[in-house]
Amino acid sequence: GAVPEVLHHDEVEKLCAMSFLDPQQHRLWKPELREGRAIPADAAAVGQSLGRIHAATANNPGVAAQFPPNGIFHAIRLEPYLEATAAAHPDLHEALFDLSKRTGEMRIVMIHGDVSPKNILLGPDGPVFLDAECACMGDPAFDLAFCLNHLLLKCLWNPAAADKFAACFEALTDAYLAEVDWESAESLEARAASLLPALLLARVDGKSPAEYITTDAQRSHVRRCAHPLIESPPAHLKDVLAAWKKEIAS
Q1: Which end of the chain is more exposed for a tag (fewer CB within 10 A), N or C?
Q2: pLDDT tens-digit profile of 34-45?
Q3: How far apart are CA 192 and CA 230, in angstroms?
Q4: What confidence tens digit (pLDDT) does each residue in 93-105 have?
C-alpha cells in the first residue's frame, strides 16, 4: 500500500499503467508544506513507512538479485549532488567524494533514491511513494537524509512555518529510527547526519539546485550552515537541525 499498484507493464514499449489515486484523498506533500501545512503526524507516518520498507528489504538476497548495480544511482544522485558540489568547494573536495564513495558502496536495503515531498502522497491509509526511478540496494541513510533535507530547505521557502518544519524533522527522524532493526540505529543516524549537510549544500551548488532557493541571502544561509558541518560531521541529526535553526534565525 505504500506504492501505486502496477496494473500493466510493457517491456517492449517501456510503458506501464498504474492504479489511479484520487487527488481528493491523496494530497501531494510538497504543496502542503509550501502552504505551511506541516503536520508532525504526517512526517512521522512518512518516517515510519520508509523505515518499514527498509527493514523488510534489509540484507535480502532476493531483492538484491532483482536490482543489481547499474550505475543509475551514481549518475543521477551521487555525481550531480555530492561530486558536482565539490567543484564549487575545492576545500571540501575530499570530504564530499568520501561521502559519495561510502554511500555508493553500501548495499544494505532497498532505497528509493528520491524521497522528496514532490514524490509523496498523503493518503487515507498512509504515505504513498512515487517515482522510484533510481531505486536500488543502497545505504538507508541516504533516503533518510535526502527527505530531511527538504524539510530544512522549506524553512527558506516559507519562513513563517519554520518551527513546524523543525517539528516535522524531529517527528520523521524519531519514527524512522524506531523501525531500524537491521543495524545499530546510532550508526545509521551518524551516517545520515554526516550526509545531510552535504545534500543541503548540493541544493545550492550542485547540478540540481532547489527551484525556490532564489536569492544570495538564502544561498548564504545554506553555505554558512553546511560548510562547517561537512568539515566536522555531527553524530546526531538533532545537531544538524540545531545548527540550521541558529543560522536562519541570524
Answers
A1: C
A2: 999 999 999 999
A3: 12
A4: 999 999 999 999 9
